[in-house]
Amino acid sequence: MKTFGSAWPGAGLFFFVLALMVGCTEDERFPELDEAPPLSPTASQLAVGVFHGDTLGLALSNPGSFQEATEVFDHGFFRLKSYDEYSVSVGEFHSHAIRADQVDFPVRGPSSFPDTGTSAARLAPRANDIVLEAERAVEQAGGGGFARHSFVVDFWRETGDWWVRWDGNISTGTNREGVGNYGFDRSDMVEDLLDHLEEIAGAHEPEWIILGDRMEKMILGGEDGAGVAPEQFDHFLEFFERARERIRGASSSTKVAAGFHWEAVAGPLAANLTGVAESDLGLEELDQTFQEVILPFAEAGDGVALRLRVNRSDADPAPYQFLRRLEQLYGPGMDLVIYSLSVPVTTTTAYRQQRLFVGEMMEHLAGVEPVVLAWERFTNIDGVETADQSVIGRCRGLTGPDSRLQMDLARCHDGLFSLGNPKEVFEPFEEFVSTD
Questions:
Q1: Segment (H or E) for 308
Q2: What is d(CA 135, CA 138) in angstroms, rounded to the nearest whole number?
Q3: Does residue 24 sit within a domain?
């Protein structure tokens, strides 16, 4: 069995639970599940990911759509980077080019976010900005808005090869690409991030703060398959524990969890850790992997936070049904937050696939009761709604060959709305709320 460092904190817990399992048959540990109807989330469970520019862009292009959207989704999951590297390329509004003549406040472009670092692009200031954007969107639309809000903090560079430099000094060397000389073992990075998280919690009192996105990448992938940063796993767990203490000290009602991509954990990572081929993975392997990777954070925090993103043809019901067993296997406190649900598509002609994906996932999640189910993002990134499927505008600036970020093109198509109008994928969420 692989571990992630000589002092991996989860190891003791895993072997303790393993000892309890001795003599326990598979049927006893994994009793047969009763049939359950497809998941039909209520309005209180639904949420939507919100990136810089999403709310204001939609309110300016179609105020009615903004009001309609926030009637269905009253919980905004504000998405942030530990340092806003997107603004260095496109300015403060990532998904839409907001013009100065459209609003009654200055619009900051890339020159306001130099790659030598600026406090304006750091975590707490950008959290303040995205909340203010949502409030301005309500003013522009003449109504609507989010009654509840949470935050997801992504620590990875867009390229995924190391953490984004937390202080914004990304102009040279390994601060731009490759392994940097900083991480969760560097005290100045840790202390700065803790200060920012505490400030966010105190100022905004969010329902949830999800620390990290796709954090399994630490121990999965990379050139040798062992992970981008396996030595960082222990340090991130220590950071997580300290961050939760600071966050809860500033806002006692805020819950904290660490974010993982479930299909990656339940597929290639489980195969790596257990030595069982992906095609042969079963409940025992998922159980072992969950205990090794996610359970330490769930027990140190307030729940389990998962991203669900997969191609329709690759969605195997079994790993989703495993999520029905969390409380039975690991005890209370396993509140499930699906902080991002999406399917990658790269053309406007594939939008029907997003709508079909939602229905199929509700079937795969039959019997699962997440406390939050959030679609990935509010609006498309501007520049993909072209007659010939060419990429222009904001999306090209983030994904194009000259972009340092090299964002995945599919991310431009992840929204519920496009050109101010609802896409087909918005329909099932409307139906959930109308029958609630």
A1: strand 304-309
A2: 5
A3: no
8 Å CB contact between 39 and 368: yes
Please report how many Cα atoms fall inside a 13 Å half-sphere around the Cα of residue 135, on the Cβ side: 7
Say if CB 319 and CB 262 are below 8 A apart. yes
403-420 core/surface letters (b: 16 or more CB in 10 A; e: else) = eebebebbbbbbbbbbeb
Give the mean model confidence (pLDDT) for residues 341-359: 97
Question: Mean pLDDT across the stretch 106-111?
Answer: 95
- Is residue 7 over pLDDT 80? no
- Number of domains into which the chain is organized: 1
Phi, psi of 151 (to 5 degrees): -130, 145
Q: Do the domain assignments include residue 32?
A: no
pLDDT classification of 401: cutoffs 50, 70, 90: confident
The Cα 165–Cα 282 span in angstroms is 38
Half-sphere exposure at residue 200, Cβ-oriented, CA atoms within 13 angstroms:
36
Rounded to an integer, the average pLDDT of 148-169 is 96
Report whether 152 contacts 49 (CB < 8 A). Answer: yes
Give the predicted TM-score (pTM) of the model.
Answer: 0.94
Q: What is the mean pLDDT of residues 62-79?
A: 97
Say which residue the tokens 């904001």 belong to.
394
Number of Cβ within 10 Å of residue 5's Cβ equals 15
Q: Give the structural domain span for 131.
A: 44-434
Q: Are 202 and 249 in contact (CB under 8 A)?
A: no
Residue 25 is predicted with a pLDDT of 63
Question: Looking at the domain assignment, is residue 390 inside a domain?
Answer: yes
- CATH number for the domain spanning 134: value is 3.20.20.80
Ordered strands of the 421-422 beta sheet? 377-379, 415-418, 421-422
The pLDDT of residue 281 is 98
Judged by average pLDDT, the poorest of 3-12, 181-190, 291-300 is 3-12
